[in-house]
Amino acid sequence: MSKTPPPSRPPVVLVGVQFPTVSDTEHAADLAELKRLVHTLGYDAVATVSQRRGALATGTVLGKGKLKDLAALTGGPGVVSSGARDRTSKARAKWEATQEEGAEEATPEPTGEAPEEVDAPVEEDEDFDAEDEEASETGLDASGPRPTMVVVDHELSPSQLRNLEKATGVPVMDRTGVIVDIFHRHARSHEARMQVEIARLSYLAPRLRESSGGSERQQGRGSGDSAVELDRRKIRDRLAELRAGLAAIEKEQDQRRYARREQLRVALVGYTNAGKSSLMRALTGSEVLVADQLFATLDTTVRALHPETRPRVLVSDTVGFIQKLPHDLVASFRSTLDEALEASLLLYVVDASDPTWPSQLEVTRTVLREIGADVVPSKLLLNKCDRLDEAARDALRAEYPDAVLLSAHRLEDVAGLRLDILRFFEASMVEAQLNIPYSSQGRIGEVYEHTTVLAEEYDEHGRKLRVRGLPAAIARLTRAFPVEQTEQG
Ligand SMILES: Nc1nc2c(ncn2[C@@H]2O[C@H](COP(=O)(O)OP(=O)(O)OP(=O)(O)O)[C@@H](O)[C@H]2O)c(=O)[nH]1
Ligand SMILES: [Mg+2]
């Protein structure tokens, strides 16, 4: 969205299609999440139009009748008049096809070919369940404010977007557009901004042409660089530039990560709003942003466990996940997730007070599995348990005996988690004896940083230290200093 929403939240109507494989509860949860997403963006969802269908209607997402219902709310014609139907060109079709394959090198230049008429049929309603009418009634409030935008809970093709805009007479956003806009708004660091711009440009490029009237909306908030107004060639150049810039930043980060490789590292991962940043704050005393909104955190922050331990334990806060996360966004945030990949311990944080947490956990696990982080040892943290009653807590304890039930807001819970983390590392540590000659005393800080010093003696040659640390650190230190003996801790 290009404009800052005024203080009174503009009213929007949500549209969701319930596929046969999706239960009523899941569908309701999906729409509730979409409502939170649009709220995070500054809008107020005042109505919902929902339809049961086998698939999205190719032309207009919804069937004829539902489309009329929707248009009645927004004040649009309710049909895509044939003269106004989506037009497309071979170049566009090719562009869209290459985008889907992710083969951007093959992106054709706009050829200027005469546009061809593509049929955008308005399908008859094909509800698979007679309850549908009932379902769609809920959420319709004729007396409320007239929605000024439609937000669809699915990723739409550019032509579906345009057809819906014509039928409803108002701008239409899809789920991906909403998430890309939130990311755009919340990105802070140079790196996150670049990642988001890549995702945004990839999302917008195929939607740029023929977006009459929608162009302002599609520029996104605060896009002062006006990159999206440029033609696709310029967008492609910009994307290449961004990717190169990002690669340079990532190289720097790789080096920084390399320097941290011997340290004890824990990463907080999980669904958006689960409480990762709250736990990060509590564990490290850092001032990371905690907010009751989706995707508050887009940058990975690394801080030492506080009070500090010897050796230090580093904790990373990471970007949250969401179901149906746009593919480009996952790809562009992959580097942030490398942090998770390199941790020795992954803390999967869930909001246990949200009944849909098991499916949220599954979303997180799926993405991490894709990047190969499923081999990293992990612990499940059932957070926000202060919002549960004792019976619910008992039930969780019984069902997930290995999980940690906690509240990021309770000091004793956080202290317990800290001990769990330390115990985990303790178990994997080994002991060694280091002999540090007086000539190398300047390097003693290195030893203290990476190990726990158990005993210390002096003789005429130097210091003899009995230390305990992670195998990698011990191996390096024993190479650096003469060793008398090592043994498993
Ligand atoms: N009651 C309760 N609220 C919590 C707890 N942990 C976090 N919250 C609240 O949940 C909201 C989200 O917390 P964050 O720590 O920002 O969540 P996050 O996982 O970092 O979210 P993203 O950065 O958006 O992915 C905030 O309003 C927190 O105050 C908890 O244990 N109990
Ligand atoms: Mg956060």
UniProtKB/TrEMBL annotation:
<feature type="binding site">
    <location>
        <begin position="317"/>
        <end position="320"/>
    </location>
    <ligand>
        <name>GTP</name>
    </ligand>
</feature>
<feature type="binding site">
    <location>
        <begin position="407"/>
        <end position="409"/>
    </location>
    <ligand>
        <name>GTP</name>
    </ligand>
</feature>
<keyword id="KW-0547">Nucleotide-binding</keyword>
<keyword id="KW-0963">Cytoplasm</keyword>
<dbReference type="InterPro" id="IPR030394">
    <property type="entry name" value="G_HFLX_dom"/>
</dbReference>
<dbReference type="InterPro" id="IPR025121">
    <property type="entry name" value="GTPase_HflX_N"/>
</dbReference>
<keyword id="KW-0479">Metal-binding</keyword>
<comment type="subunit">
    <text>Monomer. Associates with the 50S ribosomal subunit.</text>
</comment>
<dbReference type="InterPro" id="IPR016496">
    <property type="entry name" value="GTPase_HflX"/>
</dbReference>
<dbReference type="InterPro" id="IPR042108">
    <property type="entry name" value="GTPase_HflX_N_sf"/>
</dbReference>
<dbReference type="GO" id="GO:0003924">
    <property type="term" value="F:GTPase activity"/>
</dbReference>
<feature type="binding site">
    <location>
        <begin position="295"/>
        <end position="299"/>
    </location>
    <ligand>
        <name>GTP</name>
    </ligand>
</feature>
<dbReference type="GO" id="GO:0043022">
    <property type="term" value="F:ribosome binding"/>
</dbReference>
<feature type="compositionally biased region" description="Acidic residues">
    <location>
        <begin position="98"/>
        <end position="107"/>
    </location>
</feature>
<dbReference type="Pfam" id="PF13167">
    <property type="entry name" value="GTP-bdg_N"/>
</dbReference>
<comment type="similarity">
    <text>Belongs to the TRAFAC class OBG-HflX-like GTPase superfamily. HflX GTPase family.</text>
</comment>
<feature type="domain" description="Hflx-type G">
    <location>
        <begin position="264"/>
        <end position="429"/>
    </location>
</feature>
<feature type="compositionally biased region" description="Basic and acidic residues">
    <location>
        <begin position="84"/>
        <end position="97"/>
    </location>
</feature>
<dbReference type="InterPro" id="IPR027417">
    <property type="entry name" value="P-loop_NTPase"/>
</dbReference>
<comment type="function">
    <text>GTPase that associates with the 50S ribosomal subunit and may have a role during protein synthesis or ribosome biogenesis.</text>
</comment>
<feature type="binding site">
    <location>
        <position position="277"/>
    </location>
    <ligand>
        <name>Mg(2+)</name>
    </ligand>
</feature>
<feature type="binding site">
    <location>
        <position position="297"/>
    </location>
    <ligand>
        <name>Mg(2+)</name>
    </ligand>
</feature>
<dbReference type="GO" id="GO:0005525">
    <property type="term" value="F:GTP binding"/>
</dbReference>
<dbReference type="GO" id="GO:0046872">
    <property type="term" value="F:metal ion binding"/>
</dbReference>
<keyword id="KW-0342">GTP-binding</keyword>
<dbReference type="InterPro" id="IPR006073">
    <property type="entry name" value="GTP-bd"/>
</dbReference>
<dbReference type="Pfam" id="PF01926">
    <property type="entry name" value="MMR_HSR1"/>
</dbReference>
<feature type="compositionally biased region" description="Acidic residues">
    <location>
        <begin position="114"/>
        <end position="136"/>
    </location>
</feature>
<dbReference type="GO" id="GO:0005737">
    <property type="term" value="C:cytoplasm"/>
</dbReference>
<keyword id="KW-0460">Magnesium</keyword>
<protein>
    <recommendedName>
        <fullName>GTPase HflX</fullName>
    </recommendedName>
</protein>
<feature type="binding site">
    <location>
        <begin position="270"/>
        <end position="277"/>
    </location>
    <ligand>
        <name>GTP</name>
    </ligand>
</feature>
<feature type="region of interest" description="Disordered">
    <location>
        <begin position="209"/>
        <end position="229"/>
    </location>
</feature>
<dbReference type="InterPro" id="IPR032305">
    <property type="entry name" value="GTP-bd_M"/>
</dbReference>
<dbReference type="Pfam" id="PF16360">
    <property type="entry name" value="GTP-bdg_M"/>
</dbReference>
<feature type="binding site">
    <location>
        <begin position="383"/>
        <end position="386"/>
    </location>
    <ligand>
        <name>GTP</name>
    </ligand>
</feature>
<feature type="region of interest" description="Disordered">
    <location>
        <begin position="73"/>
        <end position="148"/>
    </location>
</feature>
